[in-house]
Each structure stands twice: as C-alpha cells, then as structure tokens.
C-alpha cells in the first residue's frame, strides 16, 4: 500500500476513493480499522471512521488507531480527509486530529489544509471557504443540525481548535509557482498547519505536487487529485467493478438543501415516497412496516426524514439534539439491516450520518470503489457479497440523483 487515508465519515471516504481510483490507484475503502492486513494489490487504502461529530479525544484515539494500521501496510503518505464544507464547531475535532497525527508521525513538514472540491462548488480563497458563489456561512451550512458553520474563515475556525499557529498559502503565490516554497517558509516560521487557497482542479494538482514527500496531507476529497501521479501509480484504474441486479431502496436523513431538492425531483419523476417524522420514530414506528410498504411500491421507494431547518430545530427543541440524531440514525440502521435480509440488493443513502449508520448496520467491512454516479459519489460494492451501495454526502449529487444511482448500481 502506497497511500493511506483516514476519513471522518463514510460518504466522504468513498468520495476520496473515487478520486484516487480515477487517478489510477487500486483503491479499497475499509469500514473501521481492519483486523487483518490489506491485500497485496491495494495501492490506496481508506479507513472510513465515523468521527465527524464525536468528542475530540475519541476522534483522536480512533484516528491514531487507523494511522498505525496504515503505517503497518507501508504507506508513504497519509491523508486526513474531512468534509469539503469543513463541518466543525469550536469544540470540533479537525484541529485536534491534525495535531495528533503530526505528533504521531513525528514530522515537522508542512501540513496542507484544503477542503476545496471545485467539481461540487467548494473553493477556498483568501483562506475563506465558499460553496458556489456563497461564503460557507451563507450557504445553508449555518443551519446544519449538528455542526452549524457560521464562520467561513478556515484560519479562525482552526485557531479555536488548536493552539498551534495557522499559516496560509494565498492563491497568488500558488499561481506564481511558489506553492512549495510558501509551504516550506510557513512551516519554518512556525506555522506548520497551512490553509491553502484553491479554486480549480488545476490548483489541487499543484498542491499535490507541492506536497511531494510530506508525510501528512489534509483536506476534502479533492486533495487526492494530485497525489496518484506524484506517488507513481499506474496510468489507468486497475479496479474491476460490475453492477448488481435486484430490488433497490433509497434512504435519506440529510436535511441539506441539495438533498431536499433531490427528494422533490424524485417525487416529480414518479418515485414512491414515505416521509418519517422524528416523533413517529421515538414513539415506536416499526421499520418492518415501512419495508412492507417499500416492497409493494415502485419505482424506487424512498424513505426519508429530511426536513427544512425550522422543522429540525422544532424537533430538537422537543426531544433534544442528541436524542433526535440517535433516533433517526438508529431507525435507518434498522431499515438497512432488515432491507438486506428481505432481499434488497441496492441501497442508496443520502447524508453522512445516515450512510454511516447504514454501513455499520449491514456489517460492511471493505468496499470496492466503482464508477462515478455524480461528482464525489462512486458506486460501491461489498466485497464478497452481492450488495451495491451509493453513499451520498448531503450536499452532493444532481437533482435526479436517486434514480441515476439506482441505474449505475445495476450496471447501466
């Protein structure tokens, strides 16, 4: 294994896996830290954790466990992958995990921080994160139920999570051919953790080259664009992937604007839908009843709890944020597990937390990366089982995502 990655959620990890596979690396995504060595033909291994919203100390522990396994596989470089919307609060764990990885790797090399993913509209300019033409804090992410993002300046966000000085690689320096020099100068000046501007895929390729030989790189999945060629992976994707036939089921717990638009488009296209309320779940709604409904409803039944920010806040005020999140995730986990038992072979999940619950419930341990459904969203297949998955971050995907995903998972 040449390249190792630690992802803080499942959808983001598969997103990175797609980037690396398209760059020519034989890529496998592991669900949690494996208990056995990787296969000999794996170029890039991604350990998908579920650490995005957990306390920093536990996120650090799990991330270090992942690092040690990747080091045992011989990785030359480590990626710490977080969301391209940098989901984190002042109590968040991105900064603490970066610090812990730096210490464990015993490196004084520059550490890139760049969540940019231009293909989905995420760019960094003057240290600020944008979603399309909006600052992060005006993009809808300020309403995220778990990690509301109210400050788009990544330097300020990180400064609240780490006592280490934060550096900056401006776009002008990157475009002037000074990326590596600026990174080294910032680290030499004591600013080892460096927020990097990037507004295009070309910028990310430059960052990949600039990070040559750096033990640790951090960012969104876009940061993986420039690494395969630097690490001398083969010129074409060596992975093999074929679709899976059989019944499909879509699940959505994401409350993002993009997902809610996709739900509306699914309905407009004639898709079968059933909305579940948090109140119903807490009062004992049975997953098996919904699966009975799903079996009898085509095309592509969709079960969702997604709602607008006001409704989410109202539910949280009644039951508490933690109880709402646990109830919804637990319900979708039960749905996924029972769906597989009932013969569903294609599962489509919208939302990072929802997808993490789904993957954990169906006992997935390793996922082969397949073709792209939409930018940042690959088709996945469980190794050794005829089950295909699409795991979508909330804000990703075109409006026709649900039907498109079902077709790609089937091999069409």
From TrEMBL:
Residue ranges of every copy of the Four-carbon acid sugar kinase nucleotide binding domain listed in the record: 249-402
Species in which this protein is naturally found: Roseibium suaedae
Superkingdom assignment: Bacteria
All residue ranges annotated as the Four-carbon acid sugar kinase N-terminal domain in the record: 3-225
Gene3D superfamilies associated with the record: Four-carbon acid sugar kinase, nucleotide binding domain, Putative sugar-binding, N-terminal domain
Catalyzed reactions: 3-dehydro-D-erythronate + ATP = 3-dehydro-4-O-phospho-D-erythronate + ADP + H(+); 3-dehydro-L-erythronate + ATP = 3-dehydro-4-O-phospho-L-erythronate + ADP + H(+)
Molecular function terms, GO-annotated: ATP binding; kinase activity
Function, in words: Catalyzes the ATP-dependent phosphorylation of 3-oxo-tetronate to 3-oxo-tetronate 4-phosphate.
Top-level enzyme category: transferase
NCBIfam families: OxoTetrKin (NF043035)
EC numbers, comma separated: 2.7.1.217
Protein name: 3-oxo-tetronate kinase
Keyword Ribosomal protein: no
InterPro entries: 4-carb_acid_sugar_kinase_N, 4-carb_acid_sugar_kinase_N_sf, NBD_C, NBD_C_sf, OtnK
Family: Belongs to the four-carbon acid sugar kinase family.
């Amino acid at each position: 294994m040449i390249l190792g990655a630690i992802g803080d959620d499942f959808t983001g990890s598969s997103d990175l896996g797609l980037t690396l596979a398209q760059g020519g690396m034989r890529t496998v995504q592991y669900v949690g830290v494996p208990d056995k060595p990787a296969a000999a033909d794996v170029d890039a291994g991604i350990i998908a954790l579920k650490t995005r919203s957990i306390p920093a100390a536990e996120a650090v522990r799990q991330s270090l466990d992942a690092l040690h396994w990747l080091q045992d596989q011989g990785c030359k470089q480590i990626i710490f992958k977080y969301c391209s919307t940098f989901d984190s609060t002042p109590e968040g764990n991105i900064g603490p995990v970066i610090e812990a990885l730096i210490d464990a790797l015993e490196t004084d090399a520059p550490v890139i921080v760049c969540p940019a993913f231009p293909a989905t509209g995420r760019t960094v300019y003057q240290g600020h994160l944008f979603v399309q033409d909006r600052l992060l804090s005006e993009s809808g992410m300020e309403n995220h139920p778990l990690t509301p993002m109210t400050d788009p300046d990544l330097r300020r966000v990180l400064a609240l999570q780490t006592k280490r000085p934060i550096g900056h690689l401006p776009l002008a320096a990157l475009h002037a051919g000074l990326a590596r020099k600026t990174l080294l100068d910032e680290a030499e000046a004591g600013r080892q953790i460096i927020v990097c501007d990037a507004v295009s895929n070309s910028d990310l390729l430059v960052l990949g080259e600039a990070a040559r030989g750096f033990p640790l790189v951090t960012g969104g999945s876009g940061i993986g664009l420039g690494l395969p060629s630097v690490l001398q992976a083969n010129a074409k994707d060596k992975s093999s992937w074929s679709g899976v036939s059989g019944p499909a089921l879509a699940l959505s717990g994401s409350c993002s604007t993009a997902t809610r638009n996709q739900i509306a488009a699914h309905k407009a296209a004639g898709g079968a839908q059933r909305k579940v309320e948090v109140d119903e779940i807490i009062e004992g709604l049975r997953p098996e009843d919904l699966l009975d409904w799903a079996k009898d409803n085509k095309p592509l039944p969709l079960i969702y709890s997604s709602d607008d920010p006001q409704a989410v806040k109202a539910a949280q005020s009644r039951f508490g944020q933690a109880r709402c999140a646990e109830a919804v995730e637990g319900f979708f986990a039960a749905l996924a597990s029972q769906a597989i038992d009932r013969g569903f072979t294609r599962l489509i999940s919208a939302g990072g937390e929802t997808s993490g619950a789904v993957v954990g419930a169906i006992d997935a341990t390793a996922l082969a990366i397949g073709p792209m459904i939409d930018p940042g969203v690959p088709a996945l297949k469980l190794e050794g089982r005829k089950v295909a998955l699409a795991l979508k971050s909330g804000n990703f995907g075109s409006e026709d995502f649900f039907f498109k995903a079902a077709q790609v998972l089937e091999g069409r």
